[in-house]
């Protein structure tokens, strides 16, 4: 061995070994910097998991009447005990065969009202009733079989078109699935798909456009056998002609015998 040179190990190997060791520990700095953020996120998740449900089934649910109006009577609602009233003394009566549009600026309580109709939330005061029976006295599954909410943020799952539509009526036949889609507008697009209703929409509907996603979501309530349809922002992401056509279909569905609440 010459002075200063390791026996049998070329100096280049020592340099490469040092570089490789650095690569192994380099991510640790970023990981340490993210520990606080991860801990905060974990705390938020735990809060959600352990939070009590906003509504619960009654201990002894009563039967839902076979007919009658869907009503809000003197309803008051706010999100925080000390916060402002979002809904204050609301009275609304929805009857089968009539289409009703609720209009107003963003944040005035239209979506909250729709959630009260299907008991995603309970009012602070007043009550919601169907056929004269308070919805709080009815099993949630029975209520939502009678009142269908087409939510503004309706989710598309990473499955096929047919699977996403069938959420509204699991036993629906292919022809029954085709019909509501044809009514809400994507018929030509659907006909162009080699796999038709078996086309996958991707995670969160990533394989379809915003307008197609909205039409698929709008087709669900039309497929549902529910007596009342509540559509929240059904025409979002559509052009003016598409929005008018979709709202017209929802109104037609209401006047054919269902009660409906449609908002644009």
Quickly list its features.
264 residues, alpha/beta, Rossmann fold, 4-stranded antiparallel beta sheet, 4-stranded parallel beta sheet, 8 strands, 39% helix, extended, disordered C terminus
Fold topology:
Elements: H1 11-25, H2 27-33, H3 35-50, E1 70-77, E2 87-94, E3 99-101, H4 110-117, E4 125-130, E5 133-134, H5 140-146, E6 147-150, H6 161-165, H7 174-184, H8 187-191, H9 210-223, E7 228-231, H10 240-255, E8 259-262
Parallel strand pairs: 3-8, 6-7, 7-8
Antiparallel strand pairs: 1-2, 1-4, 4-5
Helix pairs in contact: 7-9
CATH class of the domain at 97-124 and 137-262: Alpha Beta
Question: In percent terms, what proportion of residues is strand?
Answer: 5-15%
Low-confidence stretches: 259-264
Order of helices and strands: HHHEEEHEEHEHHHHEHE
Cα radius of gyration in angstroms: 27 Å
The CATH topology name of the domain at 97-124 and 137-262 reads Rossmann fold
> What's the average pLDDT?
83
What is the makeup of the main sheet? Answer: 4 strands, antiparallel
Instruction: Please tell me what the overall shape is.
Output: extended
Question: What is the first-to-last residue Cα distance?
Answer: 86 Å
Biggest sheet: strands side by side, in what order?
A: 2-1-4-5
């Amino acid at each position: 061995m010459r002075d200063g040179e390791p026996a049998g190990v070329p100096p280049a190997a020592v340099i490469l070994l040092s570089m490789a060791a650095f690569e192994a520990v380099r991510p640790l700095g970023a990981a340490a910097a993210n520990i606080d953020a991860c801990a905060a996120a974990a705390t938020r998740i735990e809060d959600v998991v352990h939070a009590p449900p906003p509504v619960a089934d009654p201990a002894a649910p009563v039967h839902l009447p076979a007919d009658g109006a869907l009503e809000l009577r003197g309803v008051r609602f706010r999100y925080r005990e000390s916060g402002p009233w979002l809904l204050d003394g609301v009275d609304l009566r929805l009857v089968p065969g009539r289409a009703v549009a609720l209009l107003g600026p963003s944040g005035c309580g239209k979506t909250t009202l729709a959630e009260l109709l299907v008991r995603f939330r309970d009012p602070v005061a007043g009550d919601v009733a169907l056929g004269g029976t308070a919805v709080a006295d009815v099993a949630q599954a029975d209520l939502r079989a009678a009142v269908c909410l087409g939510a503004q943020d309706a989710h598309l799952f990473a499955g096929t078109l047919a699977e996403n539509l069938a959420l509204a009526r699991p036993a629906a036949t292919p022809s029954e699935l085709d019909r509501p889609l044809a009514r809400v507008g994507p018929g030509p697009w659907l006909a162009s798909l080699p796999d038709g209703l078996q086309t996958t929409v991707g995670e969160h509907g990533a394989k379809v456009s915003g307008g197609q996603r909205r039409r698929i979501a709008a087709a669900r309530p039309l497929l549902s056998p529910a007596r009342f349809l509540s559509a929240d922002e059904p025409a979002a992401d559509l052009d003016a002609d598409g929005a008018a056509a979709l709202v017209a279909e929802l109104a037609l569905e209401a006047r054919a015998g269902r009660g409906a609440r449609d908002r644009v």
